[in-house]
């Protein structure tokens, strides 16, 4: 209807004033306050060794429970946080909270070997990230090797000086994983020079792994690449026993996905994974 008010067929509103723009502005205002109002929290998704069902780590996945909007997914608010310059504050909170949670579990007697935290491009390209990570590790007294930072290929390729920043992080002793591997455009020559320890096979390749010949070929190629470059490989989005069996058969020993667990609130993770032996038996029984 805004258009109907325009003269000569031109609409004289700025794009930011239309319905979508208003919605976005509202979202933006709410998001900026969400942290201090404690509406942001972290869910943790187990990463397991396929054959034993053993817990090898968890990935922290940010969540926003907004009283006004309901549950908002990270795919909706992370890009917004990046656009409005809020991602550094949010990302720093995520890093602190994830590390704190790992030490809380330690104290509660649940040993989660490793915590993986996602980074966005804006966090990496500021350059100060290594200092922040060092501070957080010091404050939480977490050994650096128990923190794994996940970056996508596009984060790496779109960040000038990415190599330098990643080397700085490596120097501290944190681990690095390439997330959504296979969906981006990173050159293998470049990859070879990065101090990365883990490749995460994107879940789009896992979805139809036993029926789509191309996905199957890509997954196998990534597993082989990992092997020849001496990198750990973990599959994302594993939902069926069939997919897990396929991966194991082709030499991928680690997985993350709904088959094992959804992203869980910390108390629930502790309740379900506090007894590793039980989890293992349940898994064997489910197959
Ligand atoms: P990601 O890092 O690739 O995370 C994996 C996503 O796959 C998560 O979605 C997870 O809930 C979902 N997933 C896990 N297992 C399965 C499965 O078996 N089947 C299916 N269909 N999905 C599965 P989520 O939590 O919605 O996060 C989406 C993306 O948002 C993440 O993708 C990551 O890129 C980003 N993100 C999440 N938390 C953070 C954060 O703290 N910081 C930044 N910068 N990005 C984050
Ligand atoms: Mg991730
Ligand atoms: Mg991923
Ligand atoms: Mg993703």
UniProtKB/TrEMBL annotation:
Domain EAL: 24-277
Entry superkingdom: Bacteria
Entire-sequence positions represented here: 769 to 1055 of 1055
Taxonomic path: Bacteria, Pseudomonadati, Pseudomonadota, Betaproteobacteria, Burkholderiales
This protein's name: EAL domain-containing protein
């Amino acid at each position: 209807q805004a258009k109907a008010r325009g003269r000569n067929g031109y609409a004289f509103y700025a794009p930011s004033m239309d319905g979508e723009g208003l919605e976005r502005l509202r979202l933006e205002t709410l998001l900026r306050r969400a942290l201090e109002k404690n509406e942001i929290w972290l869910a943790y998704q187990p990463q397991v060794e396929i054959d034993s069902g053993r817990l090898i780590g968890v990935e922290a996945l940010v969540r926003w429970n907004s009283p006004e909007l309901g549950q908002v997914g990270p795919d909706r608010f992370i890009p917004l946080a990046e656009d409005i310059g809020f991602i550094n504050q949010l990302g720093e909170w995520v890093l602190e909270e994830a590390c704190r949670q790992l030490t809380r579990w330690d104290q509660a007697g649940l040993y989660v070997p490793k915590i993986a935290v996602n980074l966005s491009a804006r966090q990496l390209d500021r350059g100060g990230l290594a200092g922040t990570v060092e501070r957080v590790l010091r404050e939480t007294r977490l050994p650096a090797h128990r923190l794994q930072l996940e970056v996508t290929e596009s984060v790496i390729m779109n960040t000038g000086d990415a190599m330098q920043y990643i080397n700085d992080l490596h120097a501290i002793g944190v681990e690095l994983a390439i997330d959504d591997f296979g969906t981006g455009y990173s050159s293998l020559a470049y990859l070879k020079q990065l101090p990365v320890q883990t490749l995460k096979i994107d879940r789009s390749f896992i979805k139809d792994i036993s029926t789509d010949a191309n996905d199957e070929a890509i997954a196998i190629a990534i597993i082989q690449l990992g092997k020849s470059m001496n990198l750990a490989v973990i599959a994302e989005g594993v939902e069926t026993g069939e997919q897990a069996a396929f991966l194991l058969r082709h030499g991928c020993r680690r997985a993350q996905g709904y088959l094992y667990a959804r992203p869980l609130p910390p108390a629930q993770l502790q309740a379900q994974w506090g007894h590793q032996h039980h989890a293992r038996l349940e898994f064997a029984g489910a197959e």
